[in-house]
Amino acid sequence: METEKIKCLIIGSGPAGYTAAIYASRANLAPVLYQGMEPGGQLTITTDIENFPGYPSGISGPAMMAEFEQQARKFGADIRGGIVTEADLSRRPFPVTVDGSKKIEAETLIVSTGATARYLPLESVQRFRGMGVSACATCDGFFYRGKRTAVVGGGDTACEEAVYLSTLCSHVCLIVRKDRLRASKAMQNRVMKTPNIEILFQYNVKEVLGDESGVTGATLEHCDGGEKGITVDGLFMAIGHYPNTAIFRGQIDLDPDGYIRTAPGTSRTNVPGVFAAGDVQDPVYRQAITAAASGCRAALDCERFLMVQGDETPNGNTRN
To answer: Which of 8, 139, 173, 302 is catalytic?
Structure first.
């Protein structure tokens, strides 16, 4: 099988990947984007998005990603289904394998493979994902104004989510499997001083309860074997994320949690010609708007890199 030569390969879709494709297309970089296992990224399991500028009436996650994809295609991006299964970053152009067989050589790579939220391994959790079970209070908390919610976790993220929800919801349960919080003292103090946050120590979620309209409650199990029922409309997972960087391990600079490190203020990695955008390099914000912004940055950095390398003339056309 003949190896395909590509100037700019974007790995992963979602706001970062599609935005990178829009900007790279307009710069005449002829980008090819492989969508990965979850075309559109995590937003495709989000029901309504109300905090992305330009959508005053809100929009569903799948509809937004369809519009991002449509706009990228309009400017000429070659968007393909498929999963990048191997990538060799030791030499440029970078040898890449798609779906275990198709061979590509890419002059530049933009990695926008995202990060995956950790969910409890319960059938009922999976059943109610997008129907009351969420992994992002900033994204979905607005829909639970005046309602009862719960957060699972005991670290800084869980405490931050609980405090955020406490400003919107009538009551927030913080479900902690240990007998203490792992969060910083400052965050612990904020939680303890918030009157509508109830901490349930040494409890695990045994089952999420609900009906066709969504979550209605949960059954919790104490470490001593006792059970407790709670009534909630929303259940938020705050037990961490894992970046989708497995195929790059040992080849690129990652932080201790596996996120790709980029030079401050840029999308550049420690491998020349490889750029990272979106949640795969952002363990802090994890928002659609910040992912899209980083996708823009990655495409611009990629364009400048190719110009400096002599692969591009100033107007973006390939040198002969």
So the answer is: 139
* Number of domain units in the chain: 2
Residue 146 sits in the same domain as residue 212: yes
Catalytic residue status for 136? yes
Which residue's structure tokens are 């984007």?
A: 33
Which of 48, 78, 88, 136 is catalytic? The answer is 136
What is the domain range of residue 162? Answer: 119-237
Name 79's Cβ contacts closer than 8 Å, sequence gap at least 6.
13, 21, 33, 35, 69, 72, 73
| Domain annotation covers residue 314 | no
Q: Digits of tens for pLDDT over the chain (320 positions)?
A: 689 999 999 999 999 999 999 999 999 999 999 998 888 887 776 667 888 999 999 898 889 999 999 999 999 999 999 999 999 999 999 999 999 999 999 999 999 999 988 899 999 999 999 899 999 888 889 999 999 999 999 998 899 899 999 999 999 999 999 999 998 898 899 999 999 999 999 999 999 999 999 999 999 999 999 999 999 999 999 998 889 999 999 999 999 999 999 999 999 999 999 999 999 999 888 889 999 999 999 999 999 999 998 754 444 444 33
Q: Could you say which of 8, 140, 159, 233 is catalytic?
A: 140
**At a CB cut-off of 8 Å and minimum separation 6, what does 75 contact?**
21, 22, 25, 26
- Residue 176 amino acid letter: V
**Is there a catalytic annotation at residue 302?**
no
Is 8 a known active-site residue? no
Residues 6+ apart with CB under 8 A from 250: none
Question: The whole model's pTM is what?
Answer: 0.77
